[in-house]
Amino acid sequence: MKAVQQVPRNALAWLLVSMFALLAPHAQRVPVWVLAVYAACAVWRLQVYRGRWSFPGRPVKFGLILVACAGIWLSYGSLLGLEPTVALLLTAFALKLLELARRQDAYVLLFLAYFICITEFLFTQDLLIVLYAVVNVLLVTTALVALHQSGRQRFDWSSLRHAAVMLAQAFPLMIVLFFLFPRIGPLWTVPIKTQAAKTGVSDFMRPGDISRLSQSGEVAFRVQFEGEIPPASELYWRGLVFSRLRDGTWSSLDYYDLPPGERRPGPVATRGEPLDYSVIMMPTRQNWLYSLRYAESAQGGVMQAPDFRLFRPVEIEDQYRYRARSWPAAPLEPELSAWRRATELRLPQHGNPETRALARRLREESGSDADYIERVLAMFREQPFVYTLQPPLLGEQAMDEFLFQTRRGFCEHYAHAFTLMMRAAGVPARVVAGYQGGEINPVNRTVIVHQFDAHAWAEVWLAGEGWRRVDPTAAVSPDRIEQGLEQALAGEGSFLADSPLSAVRYRSIDWVNWLRLRYDALTYRWQSWVVGFDSDRQMDFLQRWLGQLSARTFLAVLFGGFALVLVPVALSLLRHRGRVPRDPLDRLYLALCDRLAARGLARRRGEAPGEFADRVAVALPAVGDTVRRATGLYTAQRYGPPTTQEDSRRARRALRLALRQLARRGKYRE
Amino acid sequence: MLPVAAWRRRFGEWLNRRIPAARSVTLDQKRIFILPSRVGVFFLVCLLVMLLTAINYQNNMSYALTFLLTTLFIVGILHTYANLSGLTLQAVRARPAYPGQLTEFELRLDRGGRRPRFGLRLGWPGGDERVVSLVDSDSEEVKLHCPVGERGWFHPGRLLVESTYPLGLLRCWTWVDLDLRALVYPRPLASAELPGSAADQPRGSAVPVAGIDDFYGFRNYRQGDSLRHVHWKGHAKGQSLQSKQYAAYADSSLWLDWAAFPGAASERRLSHLCYWALEFERRHRDYGLRLPGVTVEPGSGERHLERVLTALALHPAGRVS
After folding, report:
1. One domain for residues B93 and B233
2. Does B231 lie in the same domain as B307?
3. Is A471 a catalytic residue?
4. pLDDT digit string, tens, across residues B178-204
5. What Pfam families does this protein's entry cite (chain A) (predicted)?
6. Helix, strand, or coil (residue A32)
7. Which residues touch A259 (CB under 8 Å, ≥6 apart)?
8. B309 and B244, same structural domain?
9. Are the beta carbons of A141 and B58 separated by less than 8 Å?
10. Residue B137's CB: how many other CB atoms inside 10 A?
11. Are residues A431 and A496 in the same domain?
């Protein structure tokens, strides 16, 4: 008869707790009805436990599975992709609960739970989420332990404690594996986050795009400079270059828009002191990387476009770390190709006639292109232009309205108008989008660039000099460049107006700011050392600590690390089973028995000490008397009437004497 | 087929050398085997899927979780092992049974320490299984039932002791031989009235037979003597162990005689004798047993019946013919 393996009540309780703990971080990602299914299944299973309802029958289960699949297909439009997969896993988890009767079902459920923990990491590897996941793993492991504690009737914390102990012991081993396990590239392509929004600067720009981005207090990327951090007014993070204006929208050129000869960047004469820095970008689901001009990167997978920006052919799905080196003083394209010149001058046939007329007039009044730039900037500076996050809506002739009527705009308005005026006057120019400035974290000297640092400016080509950066916003609002958006908008109160909970908003409160910066420094370290631990970092790390890598050192560290943890664990586990402490008299007598057993004279089961002593006297006459006397005193102590301290001492002495004699005789014999 | 049997035999011999039979066995590393359970293998497959996820998404936290679960598995080896290690199993007693019945073995489990033990599963192949946890008490008596074979000593073979606590991913087990054996009596078989079951012995002959009526002397203690008859006072004075002898007087004694069934096969004779022993006991008659080489003087009562049935069970004739 096989013993039936039921699911103990405690295990069911832990399972339900971990089930909801697992759902929490995914809750915002899955459709609402999945949450409803979750709750319904939990209630159903509880009612089964209480004996009110019964498990669903097979047809009902099949029906539920079909309905769930259909629901996911309707919600996401497909069953593939990461989000539908997660929703499917969560639904399967909830439905599996409805047939949780035997221990085997619980295993399936718990392993599924571990897998759901992993899927959370595919979306974010934020420090807090990881800490939360540790709690989840602890809960699931507790349920696994409780599943085997069938002897418990009442609820207690012992399964939680046991699970915590085991995970704590596993943790150092995990660290060893984490640093030693070779990081290899993906083996095949996997479903990506189809539903996640692209974030950051997009590859086209209409009025209003960047000001929308500036509503967010999220971090865009963090930069660590190897030397001094340049002043904020020099931190123009180039991300995209917009060379094409069409229907009031600036956009960048595709690779296939370029003639074959123009697809590679021309040679650049690097000059001056280079800046070395590394950037950790938050996932954007876009391809471009941010860098100071003029940047090169030796890192594999980072490419350079002919307009001197960096990009990655693979979308940035996860946090991405890259190193770059910039030469801010290097001249870019002192010689412009005919095709490039034509591209950077091209304007739509019609539109904004007043702006074009103004541009032609100003250019005629100027002595040179450089002089013309100054005049346009002076116009922005001297006329009542306002820098605002809340510009009025513009109509068909957007730039005419902006320059001659509203005069209120955000950086994209100024960059757009300025570049348009340059091109209209025959000066090659383009819009550059990216971020400007950043916050220096005094804790670890990183530059934190937030989404609200998003910015657009212009680049103008001047004969003999090449591309020159011109920021018309700086002419309107110098504060924006020197001190950042918050100061520039101080009077308006619109800074992060839509994100009341963003910690950045409360920078003025000292302790909040202190906490925020500490946490950000921790996040940086986390991202660069743990999340961003790739094969390059691994090589660096291992060579630094282990010297020249060889299979032998590798294995030595692996097994050495394991032994260092497992040996003490094994010792502590086995020491626990130590015998119940014995009376010193018993201990001596048992030692005597052991020693005799070593001589081949084992006390038989049920043999009285006196009989045994007689047997010993026959087999080993030399010690017979001593053993007999010691045994007599011992049995008198144990089974006789109460005695004095002195008698007990005498018995112990006699036993010790017997032990000594046996030891001596043993030596002679050997 | 043959090689399998040969391997099994060799495994059995190896096991006998490694874990010799003993009435009391404390489990230690020499005796405990450990391997992933079926669930554990499934878990390892799940880990592989997780590792592939980590590799394909280049996701370090997925690596970390996969490795944490892998090392949890490794640490689990020690914890699973610790649940069995140090446990002491002791044979207590075995109940005699008739062929085709279940015998009951009584074992004692001692956790040897204060750590609770969970989900210890005990059982013989073919017998029933018990799951025992030692949580609030240090030891527990366990009764296990096992179907017996034919007349004679029944050896249940090695007892399987296994546990998958705490994770269920690893199965830790041992095969112990607690030197347990149960007596299997002959199968009772009715026959025509036993020849001479009517009294053919003179009544009231004053033959002293072991009985309980009158004390008549001492003799050296022999194994099997009732502890109630031991002369404890003398022993406490340092004399050797002595049993008091009592006499009963044979009265209308019946003899269960091997020779009473001429022509019957020996196994059948034993079965008939068994039947009649039970029958006389039921009728409260005194009866004795005469087998080639064995004689049990007449008597009655539970202990007498046991003696008679034991003699029948262990009689070699059945196995000889």
Report:
1. no
2. no
3. yes
4. 888 889 998 888 877 665 554 444 444
5. DUF4129 (PF13559), TgpA_N (PF11992), Transglut_core (PF01841)
6. helix
7. A339
8. no
9. no
10. 11
11. yes
